[in-house]
Write a structure and sequence with these properties.
The complex is a heterodimer of chains A (128) and B (512). Chain A has 128 residues and is an alpha/beta fold. Chain A has helices at 11-23, 34-43, 60-67, 86-90, 107-123, and strands at 3-7, 27-31, 48-52, 76-81, 98-102. Chain A is built from five helices and five strands; from the N terminus they run E-H-E-H-E-H-E-H-E-H. In chain A, helix 3 (60-67) links the parallel strand 3 (48-52) and strand 4 (76-81). In chain A, helix 2 runs parallel beside helix 3. The two termini of chain A are 23 Å apart. Chain B has helices at 9-25, 47-53, 61-64, 67-73, 116-120, 122-170, 176-190, 229-238, 279-323, 330-344, 349-361, 371-374, 382-388, 391-399, 406-413, 435-450, 461-471, 478-494, 498-510, and strands at residues 32-36, 92-100, 103-111, 195-199, 205-209, 216-217, 242-245, 249-257, 263-271. In chain B, the strands form two sheets. A six-stranded antiparallel sheet of chain B has the order 6-5-4-9-8-7. A three-stranded antiparallel sheet of chain B has the order 1-3-2. Classes of the chains: A alpha/beta (128), B alpha+beta (512).
Chain lengths: 128, 512
């Protein structure tokens, strides 16, 4: 079980992702935009961040940039996107385990990915 | 005490709502609200009430705790006889029944040790509790409905994703068997199947492995799911998805219907220790098989039409070749050689296809040339030659109305143009001549030299090549000639005798 923060501006997609992940046994928090997510990220640091790219105010890439400054507790980030330039999204965030998932995403594959991030984190040695 | 079970999403929303409400309604810090008997049992009654009930031992709620709280948490409280008298001194309790998530719960209000004037407002408290429980009930119902919708959305997401990935995967694939294999292995992956079997209407079985790289396994008895002929027949006739349970596995079956009415039965197998197939799985296979059936039918139809158009064209072209007794099989060979040269030059898909068709059709205009001119033994007069020179333009005019031949038109029109400008019909030079037409020209000349023409005996291949080499740069494009020579040399090295075989049938036919 992981503590997961989901940042997504579309309320329907947000509630579906949160429902799905809490059904999988995760502790899920939701944020409607990048700024709210950044605030919550500081207040209650998640194990995993799931973020949309296109959001008003602060978008997912800016959010990713902000959190990667202070990400030692973060096991992984999942970026949901309609865009195809995956390499550009995952580049330039050294030290953060970034996965790009194209929309429409498969819920079961998202769950598999979260499990994979968790098991990767479990096999790595704990940070000093 | 056992660890509390994980709350679901709706229960968490209810819990948060109760937390907010109890803050709003609390006129004294000692007042609290809770829903007992379903998951949202936070916030709990005030700690000091519990302690008073349980004689300061919160762990003994079952053994000697407050009978109301215990009954409520088990979902068995009778609210009719409830009054505050049995509470520890100074406490009072009120409850209303709600039904949340199919279970009975109780909205419980516990009020702490209070003075006389507070007791007087107890009736009011009950009224408030009643409306509160109605609101909670309503919200609980909405949440439940919402959750049902969300489940539906999740299922749709899976389906959309499958369709998305599948179309992405088959974009490069046109062969029907491969489309089928990819469709089925994607389906199997999604349904966590061990394998997928397809039973055709002639009762042949094919079994597919479930992996990224689809493979059709040898149909062996051990991999095939056990299903009776009666059940198969039932599936075929009902056209509906069904679940069967077997001693050693779970089985999900559904029809894959082709547009022409043929029905294959698809059987998805899951090992016994995996979970049973759900209604969601049934919905999924139903929609996948219905769009899959259409895609596969379209592929088959496409292939059938393509084959038909090639065969029809071949038949017509060979009828024209027949008219010119000495060029039997010429168009077929030019088509084949032109494609080979195209490949040698590094051309890809659509250009190769254009060469294939242009090769077949380049002499179609000869249909307008009188037979006595075509088959005249000996040299042609200038007048006769002028007639022959019309055939590229006539071919162009014949093919022009056919929309799908637009890409071959200019090759047909210009396949007798020479780089030095001495060709016909327009006397184009070098780069003015379309590339594919230049290829066609070289191949056409080689084939004409190598086969028996009316006006001279066939040259041997070496002599033909020699002539072509001499005309390279003047009558023939030098880049193409070089590629052609390389191709012929490679052909002779790798498969000696193949060139001779290509022309053997021509000789036999010409001597008829």
């Amino acid at each position: 079980m992981s503590r997961i923060l989901v940042a997504e501006d579309d309320p329907h997609i947000l509630s579906v992702i949160c429902l799905w992940l809490s059904q999988q046994g995760h502790d899920v928090d939701e944020a409607r935009n990048g700024l709210a997510a950044l605030q919550q990220f500081g207040d209650k640091p998640p194990d995993i961040l799931i973020t949309d790219v296109n959001m008003p105010g602060m978008d997912g890439l800016e959010l990713l940039h902000e959190v990667s400054q202070n990400a030692h507790h973060l096991r992984g980030v999942v970026v949901l996107t309609n865009r195809w330039d995956h390499r550009e999204i995952s580049a330039g965030h050294a030290g953060v385990n970034v996965h790009v998932v194209p929309k429409p995403f498969s819920p079961s594959k998202l769950a598999d990915l979260i499990a994979e991030i968790d098991s990767d984190a479990a096999t790595m040695s704990p940070p000093e | 005490m056992s660890k509390p079970r994980q709350l679901n999403h709706s229960e968490r929303v209810l819990r948060d709502m109760l937390g907010d409400l109890s803050q709003v309604t609390a006129s004294r810090q000692t007042k609290s609200l809770a829903v007992l008997g379903c998951g949202a049992s936070d916030p709990r009654p005030p700690e000091h009430c519990l302690r008073a009930c349980l004689k300061n031992d919160p762990t003994s709620v079952d053994a000697n705790g407050c009978s109301w709280l215990t009954a409520a948490s088990m979902g068995r409280l009778d609210t009719s006889g409830l009054n505050g008298d049995k509470c520890p001194k100074g406490f009072s309790v009120a409850a209303e029944t709600v039904s949340l998530g199919g279970r009975t719960g109780f909205v419980l209000s516990v009020e702490g040790a209070c003075g006389r004037e507070e007791r007087a407002s107890h009736v009011k408290g009950f009224e408030r509790l009643e409306s509160l429980s109605r609101i909670l009930q309503h919200v609980g119902d909405l949440l439940e409905e919402n959750e049902g919708l969300a489940e539906e959305v999740l299922r749709s997401y899976e389906q959309i994703n499958l369709i998305f990935e599948f179309t992405h995967k088959i974009a490069q694939v046109t062969e029907t068997p491969e489309v089928e294999a990819r469709l089925l292995s994607s389906l199997g992956e999604l349904l966590h199947a061990t394998n997928i079997a397809v039973v055709s209407d002639d009762d042949t079985w094919r079994i597919f492995d479930v992996s990224d790289k689809p493979t059709q396994l040898q149909a062996n008895a051990s991999a095939a799911p056990t299903i009776g002929a009666v059940e198969l027949d039932g599936l075929r006739r009902s056209g509906k998805v069904s679940v069967f349970s077997r001693g050693d596995s779970h089985l999900l079956g559904g029809p894959l219907v082709r547009l022409d009415g043929r029905v294959d039965i698809v059987l998805v197998t899951r090992p016994r220790e995996a979970c049973v197939f759900t209604s969601g799985d049934m919905l999924l296979i139903e929609s996948v098989l219905s769009f899959g059936g259409q895609i596969i039918s379209n592929c088959e139809l496409h292939e059938k039409l393509r084959r038909m158009s090639v065969e029809t064209t071949r038949a017509l072209v060979s009828a024209i070749d027949q008219k010119d007794h000495y060029t039997c099989g010429h168009s077929e060979r030019v088509s084949l050689l032109a494609m080979m040269v195209g490949r040698e030059l590094g051309l890809l898909g659509s250009d190769l296809q254009s060469l294939e068709w242009a090769g077949l059709l380049h002499d179609v205009g000869k249909i307008g040339v009188p037979e006595e001119v075509l088959n005249k033994p000996g040299k042609l007069t200038d007048e006769e030659f002028e007639i022959i020179k019309k055939h590229p333009e006539m071919g162009y005019e014949i093919l022009r109305p056919i929309a799908s031949f637009q890409s071959v038109l200019e090759s047909v029109l210009h396949h007798h143009e020479n780089p030095d400008g001495s060709g016909y019909p327009y006397g184009l030079t070098r780069d003015e001549i379309p590339y594919l037409a230049r290829i066609l020209h070289v191949v056409d000349v080689f084939d004409a030299l190598s086969s028996s023409r009316s006006y001279r005996a066939a040259f041997r291949f070496d002599q033909s090549l020699e002539i072509i080499r001499k005309e390279s740069g003047t009558k023939l494009d030098s880049e193409i000639v070089a590629a052609f020579e390389h191709l012929i040399a490679e052909m002779r090295r790798k498969s000696p005798g193949e060139l001779e075989r290509m022309y053997a049938s021509e000789k036999a036919a010409a001597h008829d």
